[in-house]
Amino acid sequence: MFRPTKCLILLLILNALLIPAATPAFAGSEDKLDKVVLQLRWDPQFQFSGYYQALWQGYYEEEGLEVEIRHGFDERRQVLRPTDEVISSRADFGVGTSDILLDMGNNQLKIVASFFQKSPTEFYMLADTPFEGIEDFNTLNVARRLDDTLDLELQAMMISRGIVPDDAKLRSASMSIAFEDLLTGRFDVIPSYLGTMGYYAAREGIDVRVIRPIDYGIDFYGDSLFTSTRLVVSNPDLVERFRRATIKGWEYALKNPDVTSITISREHPRQDMDQTEHTQYNRFQAEVVQDLMLYPVVAIGNLNPLRWDHMQQSLKELGFMAETYPIDSILFDYKAILEANRIEDTEKRQGQIIAFVILLVVLMVLFLFVRNRELNDEIAERLKAEATLSRSYARHQSIFDNAVLAITMADMNGTILQANGTWARQIGYPLEELIGMNILDLVDPNSRDQGSEELSALADGHLNEIEIERTYVRKDGTLLHARVFMTRIKDPETDEMVNLAMIEDITWDLFEEEAVRRSEARFRAIVDDIAAEIGPEAIKPLDSLEVLDVPGRERLSLKLEQINLELERLFKKELDENRQKEALIAHQGRLAATGEMVANIAHQWRQPLNNLSLILSNLEDGFHYGDLHPDELTKAIEKSKRLIKKMSETIDDFRDFLKPDSTPVVFSPQEEIETVLDLLEENLRFNKVKASIHARAAFELAGSRQGFSQVLFNLVTNAIDAMAMAGTPVDQRFIDIELTAPDDCGCLSDQGSPVTALELTAPNLPKPDACCGIIVRDSGPGVPEALKDDIFNVYFTTKTGGKGTGLGLYIAKSIIENQFGGQLVLQESNAAGASFAIRIPAKAVVLANAGQADNAAAGETAARPSAKPNLEPLRSETP
């Protein structure tokens, strides 16, 4: 049956879609300016004169912009990285160089205009400094700062000539560099940007030698304007207006360098120079900037796609970028954006016309169909949509159902939005019935008011997360006792804040506690019964109890027998439970150690992989340029095999460490310590920690070799982490491991006097209480006085950010006590470091012969000083 009303409604809707929108894309009052922030990369100077003149001459305001120009430092004179400021939305535009490509990430940035057509980076040394080639940079004292784009060009220049830079010379990014450093001999070579060091050399009349990366093929763009991809996508017109106004500002600054220099020094005085000196410095920079911008030969802000593509290809070949990007995806092209929008609008219009024609044809066809066919189509579409929704819901719900803990997600009012099957099984409700219920309706009425207060605190933002114990009421009326961890997150589907709760069932734990209380009550009752049976005689001496008659003594004997049987049963139950808990904790500790080992494998493999990469790159270049000789190929293959063999040996070492073998054996503790330090070699190097072994006694231990290695591994990694987290100065980081003789570790003989080394060498010794010790000292921050009693507790950790499991020291103490019968104690702790002592009793000690003991006591072996870290791409800069 034909329905003309429905067809008419469809025609009206289509007509409304085809009517062009009357509202402009950007609506706003004419006098309202768009506020934007520009982040510079240094102090105010002629280097940024184009932006200042665009602001002072009103060019930004003419384009409808209100611009805030921020200097390159914060209040504490810490460098602000423009790429970080733009990516984090603290700034809209920034000035950068190669760091734009290095911090591009997932196409987060767009290059708007390139102003310095050449790199301003230079390296200065005194004219009489011995220098024959850039390979001398590894022998000269070069001023290098960590995360500096100037240093990146130095590395690129050296690597392009096959020279690996010595990164041991890298210093803090906050290190200041001045021309006086050359004169005083603090550095042999210093970096410079915009010829600054040349300016001071000319002023002082000092002859210098200049090394430019561009002379070695490193031709990078200098200062360039960039913005975020999200701003380009959301408002390309604003980006174009900012670009146009900035170019006009640069034109004015270049045509009026003297006026601009004076104005900058007057409007933005600097602390490191007076106004006159600042003006002279700006005039010097004006000439350098004009040369770098190739003005007027090259148009101001010219973007050359081929040069930018060559830059990122060079950075990738040199190992500073993992991947390159399509060049049109990182450059801002306003005309291309307008053309794409025009084409999109045209295609959309054509699609609307085609859709209108098709709709007319469909409507004509619908005239011929009866209502039953229309209903069948609607039913089919509905079933299809329901099937799609059902699959989507099942896939989403399976993620929750695979979780070990019960999980619920509720809105700020407590209405359950999602829950997993674990929660449904625990609470006894079907999953579909739980959705839409209020979580407070499941809470025990006695604690419902408290639950409302907690939800209100989360909704108001007073708390971000809470951990509580709460009692719920199951559907069958029984109680569910749970430990709840609740936090606020943003729902990715609605962008609204919701409460995510993870629920652990502790009902059985509470029942066990109640059973213990009942058992205690039963014992008290039995004791009371005994006291009643005995009467006042209970307080008499034991010999006076003989006056009790025979039945009284029999009743007393039966009561005591009941107590013994009950105590034996409870003791056996508690012992079994403790063994299960200890086994679980030990397994968790082994997993934590495994995680640490995997991290150390990554450290151990990084340098060999870097070397293999360089070998392959050299082979590729030699093959490409036709100068690959057979001897060089053979040497490269042999070197690669040695590196691969070293990596294979590393895997074998880590596999032996992680092998779950607790069979008691006789082993050398000094050898195990050396093995552990070998496994941690790269970790020690990366954190610049010097580890030393001081063998003052020679002995062997009988017990679990893997367990002893795990104890030493935990103590050493804890010391490394403590020094790294506390920021201990690099030259003061050390770990000393000392093996002591019995009399040194303070153990006592049977008579309570110290056991001497002579006594331990007697035929019938060592005595039962004699021991040897291993002491691990570090130069970290020490253990705070308030935490000394807690550090060996299970799950207690001082590491932040989820880096600690709280199992290391607990497992170490358990291994020493249970497998060796010894002690692990915090011997000393203060601001100068911490000292842990492992005391091993005589029954686990196998003394070496006298000659070995003398040699061990007389010598000390230093092990594994820190070395330079692996070369990694720099991703920040300081001009």
Task: Give the key terms.
879 residues, D-Maltodextrin-Binding Protein, domain 2, Beta-Lactamase, six-stranded mixed β-sheet, five-stranded mixed β-sheet, 16% strand, extended, disordered C terminus
Please characterize this protein's 3D structure.
The chain is of the alpha+beta class and 879 residues long. The protein has 5 domains: 34-118 and 221-332, D-Maltodextrin-Binding Protein, domain 2 (3-Layer(aba) Sandwich); 121-216, D-Maltodextrin-Binding Protein, domain 2, CATH 3.40.190.10; 403-505, PAS domain (Beta-Lactamase), CATH 3.30.450.20; 560-660, Helix Hairpins (Orthogonal Bundle), CATH 1.10.287; 661-863, Heat Shock Protein 90. It is built from 28 helices and 24 strands. The protein has a 6-stranded mixed β-sheet. Helix 11 (257-267) crosses helix 12, helix 20 runs antiparallel to helix 21 and helix 25 (705-726) runs antiparallel to helix 27. The longest helix has 76 residues, at 550-625.
